[in-house]
Amino acid sequence: MRFRDRVVLVTGGGSGIGQATALAFGKEGATVVVAGRTEETLAETVELVGGGASLVVADVTDEADAARMVDTVVERHGRLDIAFNNAGIGAPGRLADLDKETWDRVLAVNLTGVWLSMKYEIPRMREQGGGVIVNAASTLGAHRRAPGMGAYIASKAAVSALTRTAALEYIGEGIRINAVSPGPSDTPMSKRPGESEADRAERLKVANPSGRVATLDEIAGAVLYLASPEAGYAVGTDLVVDGGSAA
C-alpha cells in the first residue's frame, strides 16, 4: 500500500495504459481521479478502481480545461500528490503526406497537453510542499525512430526533453518529475493500420528482442515505481520499458 493517503491524477484514464495505471494506483491505496474527454470510458475506469475514485471530463489541449481539471482534484480532496500525464494519440503517415491539422492535433495532445497539465499541477504541488509527476513519452522519440510515425516521434521526443527541463527547474521545490517511455504495448496504438492482434504478435516475434508486446501491468508498474518513495533519487529520468527494442 505504497500510495495510501495519496491523491493521484491520471490523464487519458479511460483506457489502455491510463486505465491500467489508475487500477494499479487504486490497488495500492491511492485516491484516484481519472481525466479525459469521454465520460463513458472514464466512468468504466472509476467503477473498476472503486474505493472513492472519481472522474473529471477535460481536454488537456484546452488551457481552461487543464486548469479546471487540477482545481477539481484539489477541491475534492484537498491536495494533489501524484500526476501521471498520459493522454496521447498517434497519427501514422509519412511527413510529406500529413496534413497540418493532423500534425497540429498530435502535438497539441501529446506535447502541449503535457505542458498545460504540468503548468497547473506544479503550482498546486508547490503550495503543499512537493509532489511527483510522471509524463508519458515513448521509446519512439528520444530513443528510436521509425518511418511513418514522424509527428508522434517528434511529439514524444519533445516530452522527454520537456520532462528533463521541468525536473531541473522544480526539484528544488520538492517536485520530482520523470518520464516513462513504453515500447509496443497491448493497446490499439501498437497495431499498424489493418493489423490484427495475431498479425502484431507475429511481427513482434522478430521486430522486438523480447518477442512480444508489453502487458499494460508492466507499463503501469514502471509508472508506479517512478511515483514511489523507492524512486526518490530519480529526477529527470526517462525510463525506457520496451522489451529491448532501443537497447
Overall 3D geometry?
globular
CATH superfamily: NAD(P)-binding Rossmann-like Domain
Which regions have little confidence, pLDDT < 50, spanning 5+ residues? none
- Which structural class do you get from the secondary structure elements? alpha/beta
What's the number of helices?
Answer: 8
Number of domains: 1
- Tell me the strand order in the biggest sheet: 3-2-1-4-5-6-7
What number is the mean pLDDT? 96
How would you spell out the order of helices and strands?
EHEHEHEHEHHEHHE
Largest sheet: 7 strands, parallel
> What is Rg?
17 Å
**Percentage of residues in strands:** 5-15%
Beta strand count: 7
According to CATH, what is the class?
Alpha Beta
> Considering DSSP H and I runs of 4 or more, what fraction of the residues is helical?
40-55%
Layout of helices and strands:
Layout: E1 7-11, H1 16-27, E2 31-36, H2 39-49, E3 54-57, H3 63-77, E4 82-85, H4 100-128, E5 131-136, H5 139-142, H6 150-170, E6 175-182, H7 197-207, H8 216-227, E7 238-241
Helix pairs in contact: 1-2, 1-8, 3-4, 4-6
Describe the structure.
Helix 1 packs parallel to helix 2 and helix 4 (100-128) packs parallel to helix 6. Helix 1 (16-27) links the parallel strand 1 and strand 2. With 247 residues, the chain is α/β, with parallel strands linked by helices. It has a 7-stranded parallel sheet, with helices on both faces. The model has no long low-confidence stretch (mean pLDDT 96). It has helices at 16-27, 39-49, 63-77, 100-128, 139-142, 150-170, 197-207, 216-227; strands at 7-11, 31-36, 54-57, 82-85, 131-136, 175-182, 238-241. It has one domain (7-241): NAD(P)-binding Rossmann-like Domain (Rossmann fold, 3-Layer(aba) Sandwich). The chain contains 8 helices and 7 strands, in the order βαβαβαβαβααβααβ. It is 47% helix and 15% strand.
